[in-house]
Write a structure and sequence with these properties.
Blueprint (H helix, E strand, L loop, with lengths): L2 E15 L5 E9 L22 E2 L6 E3 L7 H7 L3 H6 L2 E16 L2 E2 L5 E2 L2 E18 L14 H13 L15 H10 L3 E6 L4 E17 L2 E12 L4 E6 L2 E3 L6 H8 L3 H4 L10 H13 L3 H7 E3 L5 E9 L7 E13 L18 E5 L18 E9 H16 L5 H23 L9 H7 L8 H13 L8 H7 L6 H10 L7 H7 L14 H4 L15 H16 L6 H7 L21 H10 L2 H10 L3 E7 L4 E7 L1 H13 L31 H11 L5 H4 L3 H9 L8 H5 L5 H14 L7 H16 L10 H6 L2 H14 L7 H14 L14 H11 L3 H6 L6 H10 L17 H5 L5 E5 L1 H6 L6 H18 L10 E5 L8 H9 L3 E8 L2 E7 L1 H9 L4 E3 L13
Parallel strand pairs: 8-17, 10-16, 21-22, 22-24
Antiparallel strand pairs: 1-2, 1-5, 2-4, 3-12, 5-8, 6-7, 9-10, 10-11, 10-13, 11-12, 11-18, 14-16, 15-16, 17-18, 19-20, 23-24, 23-25
Helix pairs in contact: 10-12, 12-13, 14-21, 17-18, 17-27, 18-19, 20-29, 26-30, 30-31, 31-33, 33-36
Amino acid sequence: MGTSSSTPFRTCYVCSASSEGNSKVLERVSESTTVASGVSRQRSVDEEEIEPPTRSNPISEWRLDPTLSVSKRDTMSEAPDPTERMERSLSLLYVEHFATLQRSGSIASTTDGRSSGGQSDISAQTKTKSISMLQTMGLSIAAMTSSKLDPQQVALFKEQLHSAGIDTSKWGFNGAKSIEHLFWETHQQKGCIIMRWGPEGALKRVTRLVKIRLVAEIFGVDHFMYSRMQFMHDGQTVERKQVPLRKLVWQQSAEEFGATLQGDYNKLCEEKGDFIESWKEAWSTTLEERLGLTQSWQSQHLAEDPDAYRYTIEDDVKSDGYPGLNTLYCIHEVTLRVRDPEHPGVRLIGLPEGQEFATAEGDFNFNGQQDDRGLVIGSQLNIWTWMRVSQVTASVSLSRARSMSVVHSQAGHAAAAAAAASKLQEEQQKQKANAPASSSKDKDHQLIRRVPLAGTSAKTLAGMQVRLSKKSRRAPGGVLWAVMEGLQTDWTTVRRMAKDIGSKKYTLDKFNADLLSFPELNLYLLESKNSCGTNSCSSVSSGRTIGDEYQRTIGAFFAIYWLFRLDSDGRDGFSFGVDDQWRPFQVATSSDIRVTQTDKRLNFKNNAKWEFFQKLLINAGLLEERSTGHIFKSEKKLVVNEKRLVSLLALTAIHDVMKMTLILPECQPEHEPYHGYSGGDTIGDHDHALSYVMQHYPDIFPSFRDLDPDERRSVLFTQCNLCFNHGWFVQAEAPPGAIFTKFREALIRDHKSQIGQRDVALYFVHWLTDLAGAEPSPLAGCEKFVTKFPLPVLNSFLRSFEFVEQIATRTETEVMEEYLKMRWTENDLDLGPLPTGSAAIAKMRLLCMAQGNASVILHDWDKLTDEDRETLAVEMSRTGCVGQTFSQDLCPRDTWERLEGPAFLVYYGPAFLQQMGTDLPVERLSVLAEIYRGARELWPTSISKVASNVTVRIDIIKALSIEEMYEAILRGDTWLLVKHNESEAFVERSSHRKLNKLIATSSSFQVLDLSCLKPYAMYR
């Protein structure tokens, strides 16, 4: 009987272009394979950081389009400062061509990842990104090509491996490294030693690493930086999530080190020693070598978190890099935080937006593959990106659990919990001293402003000990059932909390004490790794120090408390925090030393749109307007909807408990696939894990179980993925279909249209309070928003919520149009009345896109030629939705008389209008019109495409001036709009050679004709 499967194939093109007009094209033709279900792969620690890597087969062909070249040494020597190098950086265009291979018939898997037998059908898809690229020093130790190695020494080295029983026949293929690489690593780089160990004298590779976790806040949320893809010196491509790392240099040979060990395993694993390079010095060097960040740049922009340092040991790891040669890894993990993510000096690492960027390390200059000598061993190209801390660390935790095969017994759980209970009793007296107190020092501020553990915590954890010792195997997880067994929510107290939340007598300390009514908060006692002394009793997926997840949850509760008291002390508490008597600080001047960052806090209190907060609470059904008084004199008053607030409090109690990885559920076969998880998989994403439990095992959490059905449905909705890009909406960057269609489909498909406008509003209230409490210092106010989130962005988001909520009852285009009208009427510019006519929608979108440049952009609208005006008016008024148009008096006749598509999303259109420099606004508008014209030539209008949305990426020109675009033409290059697939096109800079190649391959593209700018020369 025939079977079918799919295997992804990739073809990758890498193009780079410098500001001086230099461009290169690097093409890879290769395959990557999927790992069959049930086959386990041991990870290699120096090759993989977060999840098992997918390595390609050796590259079968590199094809180069050579033009001028900027060498690493020229770039590094002329611009030693990272910020200066960023201005001279290359632009990397990376294209992934995915081909899904559908097979049928009998299939046999072969060792090289291919399958034999059956028939195949291939369908193609591409994904393209244009990112900045820096050329860095790379690993400067013993740089040389394979051809420079002593062939006799390599042959002897190979024979020694064979005599020890190591089969190297598969080395150098399918992702494995070559013998030459290991020889270089051992004898030239001195990054490892190979020694005989154990009673049988088996060979063991010993290497020590320094890993760097670089953390930055992106829109108020912590993110890690990692390399997601590496193009290696030997032509292979590796897809993995890897933080910056480097092997430490050995100061002794294997023989010298072995003589001092005398079989002592503990000495082999010692954290420090004269035999190895200092990790404290190595991490700074690593950043310079791999990212090009100089020592002075690091001192200015980075701060080390000494409390986050970890030293771990992983032994007998079966490496994918060197099959058959087990490795001992000793790992120093260092955490560094970017001091100010919005500083111009950190733009080179993708901040503040968290954009991807690339580094070409060492002599990886795109030409080595055409040279008989090849590239220097260890040189590579990295594509770096940023990921939320919780996503990264959850995956790390699960990956480590799999690689180390840790199995914890019931007795082990009980012993760990017993130790934790004893430890907690000792610590509670110390934590009482950490109750509200003020400090002017940022270093101590966070710890001092934390809420102490409850006095009953030790007793509660001891109860967990008893239940864990009796746990049984029960879906979806025996530990989860055990720790929650018999626990009940104190609903009497919770309802009183909702009733009294606005009362002057209901102070913050009383509110905090009442939070013990939610039994799910006890799960945060499993957070403390130090208390339990073992991973079996603690593993927190967002990776902060002891108690942080509990503190964040309390911070979210406190944000709710303050938002329901905005008419009394809520604004002060939200902005400044509380004193040692739990009373909100009242700060009047920036010289007040009782709080930190006083200027930011005062600015927030005085300029935050508090009325938008309150409006959101009303729309979510948390506050209601009621009439008071008598028939002759009545007034409206806001009162709390206690039932609805109880649901919000219950949601806050449970929303992050799945960050305790000990209780993560296991997907059951009858529920697969569940967000990509198969039966038997542990659901590692904490949001998906909570949704899974609430959907399929609602009785586990009493604070969810006991809500009425309508409220349970609302709470469950807050955990869904709406596929909503808020930035597209706030900046009017995309047409309504691209912004809202998937959002609306989720409401209809997943929730059967049972979700209303107030449920969507509750979703945003939860998002808001969760982020407000994201700093683990709840007594210091809502610091994430007050001191770290751009206030104009927050105000824009708050104002937009009211419109996004309407998607539950209105069409995508209706919601968009109402929002655009609001932005025009409420703007601070003197733009006159709401526009009408065929250009109205285009003008309103330009207002949102241009932001600070809106006045000059709109002023120059009438300077445009008729062709440019008509193009912008028509294309910016298409909706990308079936049967939907903007109001007929606001858009061109063509867009509502004949509904056609696709509609275009000009990605980075707002940045193009916001970063004008010395360009004339009318010139920028004209180039935007030319891009729309080119896109329409590639995608002619069609009735069948009316619901389609195409993304047009203009990354490469978003920050270029018109003069720089002209300079490229004078150098002989051409600006093109190239179609990469049916839903995506990119603006690209092309040499004549590349242009000929596109023509020869019948690629779809349009030349961007900058002669459209000639009519505007008179305005210069």
